[in-house]
Structures are given as structure tokens and as C-alpha cells.
User: Which sequence fits this backbone?
């Protein structure tokens, strides 16, 4: 569109500010040329993962091998030039350079030759993965120590006779000066970094697996990532904010899977007071219903530890039910009073009445419950919960990780015509957006519901938040965890109590909300995408939360391709259920590919024997043409910048602004 004098006069204040960065016609013109060039580069590769659940080693390997993309590139680059065993060795070196180098130095008789050959190979791989980026972006990815050298090697080719000697001297000097190990390590990390342009985590870093804190440490060092909070992330955020019910739930889930590594080793949460309390108060209770699950690492614990874990498990569960009852009683608007089940037990008969139906309890041993006031905390329980709350709310490392979730995360995001959220959008029976009551009786639906809920979550961590509002925000973490219309739960109930204490499995049923019933409909997905203002010919919803039962034939691609559910069961606890060990959705310049992962053996096995995660690629959606940066959200922003710079040029040329030499 042609610029006019009127537009320039209208935008003069902004153009004056812009002229401080681009003070001349030459500077503005050069920037336009640069931005136009970037628009015509291939789109960067995005990786989407969901429901990591503390499986640090598997996650780390998937990040290092770029969901199998590096292995594929090595195969394409070297073809028959290298044997399969040599390509495997090269891939292992790229994934784990420090560890692999130690093995090579112990076993390789011609180490100098190996250095020369390997550096040439790494340069080829690095040149390939960097080809879709500008030199400026690649340069920013390089370590300071080797930035100049890597740039020289990437942009000079040994097939140029005049440059071959130059390149060989650079590599020879790297080796003779004793910097080969450091250089190879740096190259491998650059390849890993450039193989993934942007990483999207669709929730649930926490619970079940032992390494959630390690995943957060890795993400904090990662170059470009975002997260859409999951229900388990929200549970830990609530615990960090001081919600007693969330604290109890976090500990209960850790004990349920006999997995205390994240709590005790990762964050230094002191569970000795809980252990002491459980041994004293539940000494005569076998706690059979609370024996830890035999998946996710609990197979290795001895019988004595299993019994102690079960007693701690029951103690914290009872404390959880009491803490939940206190919060639910404060919020009748949540409609959850029927979930205060300690009030529904006949402690003499050993029965529990739910929805008018009486059920026999598996066990009715509750040494800390007063039948006349079942939800009241004993003096010991009050002291225990105070100690636990203090451990969570003053924990520096946990607060650092929660701040990262807040700064990099949100309940949902829209990126490149894809709507990302972890679990659900509450819907009415007819598929229309459901209004949900939040604070002070105000009701919201769809996008506004997500935005307002996001604000409530953040207000729990802001000191300047009104005291009453902040108290509600802290309480609301419990509703987000298990409330009927929660955007992170959306079920009729969370049947934790029933699974522990009742044998009638009909009471376990958690009826899914309408989103899960209707999301297979293309029409319904289109309605949701419209509500979130997601446009584009190839728009999608991408979710996690509900494991896809691949072993039973379930397809993760739903609603005629509009919806992709990428929870493939990273957690060991889900492997039997899903039949696989996770998904990565890869969105590159040619389209979408879904990478299905088999279980990861171990980091040690990958280093020693070159084992890799076996991955199967499913073509989801391929474009007829190669997508460019111009087709992305970044491209839209760059086009706006170009338009502004063109106005600045107009202002210079027609005398509205003077150049500053």
C-alpha cells in the first residue's frame, strides 16, 4: 500500500523514535534488505512434547537427538560414505560429546587421525543444520571461544582447492594446540541447538518420574522454549504458593510411586517429620491400600521401606482429605461439598455413603480422625502441615523453577496457527463454550476464561496483590487440580478417596467433560479455533493430558487432522497403558511429522553401545511448498517492521525527518 503524507504526519512520534535506531536512509534501507532476506529463509523447526512427568533421561535424549532428526540428517549427509556403525558412532558423539570422547581416547590408537576425520564430519553436519538460519543467528548460537573458527569452517569448503589448505591448517592447529576435545564438544552442542529452533512443552513436567527438577534445570539453560501449564505443574505451583491441599497431593503422588528423588534430593524437602508422625500414629495399621505402585522405579525398594512408604502415604492422604475439606468449605460456589467424603463415613459400621448409596470400606482405621468432627486437624497434624508448608514456601530452588514456569508459560498460546493448551476448554452439552464462575461471581468462557484464570494463577505470586484476592488465588489451585469445570481437569470428580478405600469400582468412574466427548468433531474444533481467533488454512489444536492408547489402536490425530493429542506416555507408569514411550510432534518447513518413541534404555547404554531411542515417523500433514519465515508469526512481525521502515524512508526523502550522519 502506498505511503501518504497523512500517514507520516500521524505516525511522526513513532518515526522519530525509530530514527534513533536507523538515523540515515542507508541504515533503514540496509535493515529492510536484511529483513526481506530473512522472510525468504525456510521456517525454523518446532518440536512439541507433552507430559514429561519427570522422565529426565528420556527427555534429555530426545532433546539431544532432536527426536531422531540428527540421526536422519547424518544418514542423508554421509549415505554410503560411512558404514552404519560409523554413523551410529558419530551420532552418539553428537548426543554425548564429553562422555564419548573419554571412551574414544581410551580405545582409539590413531587419535590425531580420528580428531581430523571427526571434525570434518561435524563441520558437514553443522553446515547442514545451520543452512536455514541467517549468519547472524548462527553466530549468536556459537560459543565465544570458538565462534570465529566455527564460522570460518562453516563458510569455507574443502572442495575449493584454494581453500582446502586453509581449512586443513585450522583443523590441524586445533589438534596440535590441544583444543580438539573442547572444539568437538562445542560443535556437538551447536548442532544440538540448531537442530531445534523452538521447543514447546504442553504441560506436566512434574510427578511420577524422578527427574522433574533436572528437566527444569535443562529448560532454564535452553535457548528457546515455552510451556503450557499442565495440571501437575499447577499442583506444584500451588504447593509453592502455600496451598496445603496441593502440598499434600504433591507428597502423596511421590509416595504413591515410591519416588521421592525430586522432593528430597531435588528440592531438599524434609520428610522426616512426616515419617516420624506416620510411624507413631499408623504403627498398628498395615496400610495395604497404600503400598507404592510397582512401576516407575519402586521395584527396587526393600520391604521395610515399602511398609514405611505405605504408612507415610496413608498419613499424608488423610491429611490431604482434611486440607481439601477446609478449602472446599470456604468456597461453596465451587459446588464440591459432596467431595468432603470424611463426613460421609459411618466410622462404627465401616461404610461410606456416596450419592445416597452405602459402600463397604476396605479399611476404617483412622487414628487421627475424630468421628464427631472428621475434618478437624489434630494438634500433631497442624504442626506437621505447618512444617511442610514452610519447606515448600521458602524453598529457593523450587521458587526459581516456578518463576521459570511463570515467565516461560501460560495456560494456552497461539503460535503459527496452532492453538496449544494442555487439557480442555469447558463446553456445554451442545458444544457451545461453557461459562465458568471465577472470582466474586464473575463468569467467563473460552478465551476469556483462560486469560482470567491465567491472571488468577499469577496473582498468587505477586506481593502487591490484594490480600483477599491472593488468598482466593492460592485456594484456586485446588479447584484447578480437581474441580469439575477446571480447564486443567474437566471431569465429574477426582476419585482418589474411592480408589483407596472402596472396592466397588463403579465409584471410581470419573466422567469426562464435554470437551473430551466432542473433540473428535472437526466442526467442534473449528468452533474452538474461531473462539480463540486462530486463522489460517491449516490451523490446529494441539493437546497433551490424556494418554493415547496406541496399543489399542487409538489414533493421536483426530477431527480430520484439526486436533493432535501428543501424550504418548513418556512416564514409565504409562508404558503398558499406551504401548509406546512418548511422542514428539515436529513442525518443519515441509509440514508436520509425528515421531513415536520406543522406551529409552539408559544414557550409559547410549554412550557405550550407541543405542538410540527407536522412533517411528508418521506423516501428519505435508505442505505442497516449503514454508518460509514469511509464513510464520515472526514473518508477520517482520513485515510490520518493514512497513514501518518504509515509512521512515519516506519521511527522510520528503523532509519530514532529517538524516543524522
Assistant:
Amino acid at each position: 500500500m502506498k505511503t501518504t503524507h497523512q500517514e507520516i504526519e500521524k505516525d511522526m512520534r513513532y518515526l522519530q523514535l525509530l530514527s534513533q535506531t536507523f538515523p540515515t536512509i542507508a541504515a533503514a534501507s540496509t535493515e529492510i534488505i536484511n529483513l526481506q532476506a530473512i522472510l525468504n529463509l525456510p521456517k525454523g523447526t518446532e518440536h512439541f512434547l507433552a507430559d514429561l512427568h519427570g522422565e529426565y533421561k528420556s527427555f534429555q535424549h530426545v532433546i539431544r537427538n532432536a527426536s531422531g532428526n540428527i540421526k536422519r540428517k547424518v544418514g542423508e549427509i554421509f549415505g554410503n560414505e560411512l558404514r552404519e556403525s560409523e554413523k551410529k558412532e558419530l551420532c552418539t558423539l553428537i548426543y554425548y560429546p564429553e562422555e564419548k570422547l573419554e571412551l574414544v581416547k581410551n580405545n582409539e590408537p590413531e587419535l590425531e587421525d580420528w580428531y581430523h576425520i571427526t571434525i570434518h564430519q561435524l563441520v558437514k553436519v553443522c553446515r547442514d543444520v545451520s543452512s536455514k538460519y541467517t549468519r547472524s543467528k548462527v553466530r549468536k548460537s556459537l560459543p565465544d571461544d570458538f565462534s570465529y573458527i566455527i564460522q570460518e569452517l562453516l563458510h569455507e569448503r574443502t572442495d575449493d582447492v584454494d581453500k582446502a589448505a586453509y581449512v586443513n591448517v585450522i583443523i590441524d592447529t586445533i589438534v596440535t594446540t590441544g583444543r580438539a576435545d573442547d572444539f568437538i564438544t562445542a560443535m556437538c552442542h551447536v548442532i544440538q541447538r540448531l537442530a531445534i529452533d523452538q521447543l514447546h512443552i504442553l504441560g506436566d513436567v512434574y510427578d511420577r518420574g524422578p527427574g522433574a527438577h533436572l528437566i527444569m534445570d535443562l529448560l532454564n539453560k535452553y535457548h528457546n522454549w515455552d510451556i503450557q501449564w499442565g495440571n501437575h505443574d499447577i499442583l506444584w505451583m500451588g504447593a509453592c504458593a502455600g496451598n496445603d491441599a496441593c502440598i499434600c497431593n504433591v507428597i502423596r503422588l511421590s509416595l504413591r510411586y515410591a519416588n521421592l528423588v525430586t522432593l528430597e534430593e531435588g528440592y531438599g524437602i524434609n520428610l522426616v517429620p512426616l515419617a516420624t508422625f506416620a510411624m507413631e500414629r499408623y504403627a498398628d495399621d498395615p496400610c495395604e491400600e497404600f503400598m507404592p505402585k510397582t512401576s516407575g522405579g519402586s521395584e527396587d525398594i526393600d520391604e521395610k521401606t515399602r511398609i514405611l512408604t505405605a504408612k507415610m502415604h496413608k498419613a499424608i492422604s488423610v491429611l490431604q482429605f482434611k486440607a481439601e475439606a477446609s478449602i472446599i468449605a470456604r468456597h461453596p460456589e465451587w459446588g464440591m461439598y459432596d467431595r468432603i467424603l470424611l463426613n460421609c463415613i459411618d466410622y462404627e459400621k465401616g461404610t461410606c455413603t456416596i450419592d445416597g448409596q452405602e459402600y463397604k470400606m476396605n479399611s476404617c482405621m483412622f487414628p487421627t480422625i475424630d468421628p464427631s468432627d472428621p475434618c478437624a486437624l489434630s494438634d500433631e497434624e497442624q504442626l506437621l502441615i505447618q512444617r511442610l508448608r514452610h519447606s515448600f514456601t521458602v524453598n529457593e530452588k523450587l521458587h526459581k523453577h516456578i518463576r521459570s514456569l511463570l515467565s516461560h508459560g501460560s495456560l494456552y498460546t497461539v503460535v503459527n496457527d496452532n492453538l496449544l493448551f494442555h487439557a480442555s476448554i469447558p463446553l456445554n452439552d451442545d458444544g457451545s463454550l461453557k461459562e465458568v464462575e471465577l472470582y466474586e461471581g464473575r463468569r467467563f468462557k473460552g478465551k476469556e476464561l483462560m486469560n482470567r484464570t491465567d491472571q488468577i494463577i499469577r496473582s498468587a505470586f505477586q506481593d502487591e496483590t490484594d490480600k483477599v484476592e491472593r488468598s482466593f488465588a492460592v485456594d484456586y489451585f485446588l479447584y484447578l487440580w480437581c474441580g469439575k469445570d477446571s480447564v486443567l481437569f474437566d471431569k465429574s470428580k477426582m476419585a482418589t478417596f474411592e480408589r483407596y478405600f472402596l472396592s466397588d469400582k463403579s465409584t471410581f468412574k470419573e466422567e469426562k467433560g464435554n470437551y473430551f466427548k466432542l473433540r473428535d468433531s472437526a466442526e467442534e474444533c473449528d468452533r474452538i479455533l474461531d473462539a480463540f481467533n486462530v486463522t489460517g488454512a491449516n490451523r490446529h489444536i494441539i493437546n497433551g493430558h490424556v494418554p493415547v492408547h496406541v496399543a489399542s489402536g487409538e489414533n493421536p490425530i483426530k477431527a480430520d487432522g484439526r486436533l493432535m493429542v501428543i501424550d504418548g506416555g513418556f512416564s514409565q507408569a504409562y508404558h503398558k497403558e499406551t504401548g509406546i514411550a512418548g511422542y514428539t510432534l515436529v513442525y518443519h518447513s515441509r509440514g508436520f511429522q509425528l515421531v513415536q518413541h520406543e522406551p529409552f534404555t539408559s544414557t550409559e547404554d547410549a554412550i557405550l553401545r550407541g543405542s538410540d531411542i527407536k522412533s517411528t515417523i508418521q506423516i501428519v500433514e505435508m505442505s505442497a511448498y516449503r514454508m518460509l519465515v514469511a509464513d510464520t508469526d515472526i514473518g508477520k512481525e517482520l513485515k510490520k517492521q518493514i512497513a514501518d521502515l518504509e515509512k521512515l524512508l519516506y519521511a527522510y526523502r520528503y523532509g519530514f525527518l532529517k538524516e543524522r550522519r
